[in-house]
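Long-time lurker. I teach an intro course on protein structure, and each term I like to show students one example going from raw sequence to a predicted 3D structure in C-alpha cell notation. This year I'd like something fresh instead of my usual example. Would anyone be willing to generate the C-alpha cells for the chain below so I can use it in lecture? Attribution to the forum is fine with me.
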Amino acid sequence: MNGGDAAIVGSHQAALFAYVRSLVDSPPVAADIVQETWARAIPSLRAGRVENPRAFLYRVARNLVNDRARDSGKWRPWLADEEAGITVADESPDAERQVFAADRLRMVRELVEDLPPRCREIFTLRKFDGLDQAVIADRLGITRGAVEKQLRIALLTLATRLGEIEGEA
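-- Reply from a regular --
Happy to contribute to a lecture. Here you go:
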C-alpha cells in the first residue's frame, strides 16, 4: 500500500466499517468484508476512475454483503442445523486410539524419569506444567539459555529412545 492508499484508507476506514457493521451481525464478518472491499476498490481508486470514493466504497461493500448473503443461502441446506436435531458425527478418538495415546503417554513419562535430574525437572516444568522458559529460568535461578539447552537435551534423548522403542516393535 502506498502513501495515497494509506490516506484513502485512513479517511474512510472507520465509516466504512460502521456501514458494513450495520449490514451484518458479526464484527469478524464485517472486518472481512471491509478488507475485501479495499482489495477490490484500491485498483480503481489508484487509476483515478472514481469520482466519489465514499459512494464507490459503499457500493462495493454492499455488493459483497449481498454476495455473502446469497452464498450462505446457497449452502444452508447442506449445513447441520442443531435446532432441527441434526448432529455432526463425534470426532473424538475411538477407544483404541485413546488406549494407544494413554500407553504412549505412559511410555514418555517413564522415559522422562530416566532423564538426568535437572533435565527432567526442566522438561517437566515446560511440557507437563506448561511454564514458559523465562519463568523456569527465574524459578530455578539459571539463564534462559541453560533452560533451552536442557530442553534440547531432553527432547533429543526422548526422540532417540522413542525411535529405538518403535524400531524394536
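Some talking points for your students: The helical segments are 3-23, 27-47, 53-75, 95-113, 117-128, 133-140, 144-168. The chain has a mean pLDDT of 84.
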